[in-house]
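Backbone shapes recur. Consider a single case.
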Amino acid sequence: MQTFASGYNIDYLSLMNTEKTCLDCGTVIHGRADKKFCNDLCRNNYNNQLNSESYNMVRNINNILKRNRRILEELNPTGKTKTTTAKMIAKGFNFKYLTNKYDTQNGKTYHFCYEYGYLPLEGDEVLLVKREEKAE
């Protein structure tokens, strides 16, 4: 045992004899002092379990956004066209999910899913548009 000026006693033999166990499966780990897992499988499993709930939610929302974008792209091959909300819903479009909104000066609001957007019109009609990105 060694005593330092700060008054702390450190028993190096007991530190060296402590057995570390894998954070995932609990088996004894051999090797580096800072090693936390016995193998890559345990490391991957532990991290997947740790992050699974939040990743599932993000993945599901991203899938909805991608599906919405694909539907808008499919219904709007020319860059600007009209359709109905019934056609969009029949293809699986989810109006609750979008990436951004754009308000025009005359008070109209375009709803976008990435570069494809729509503007609700009178009744069931919808104007589909594609935003062209300008190179700066």
In short: The chain has a mean pLDDT of 87. The longest strand covers residues 125-130.
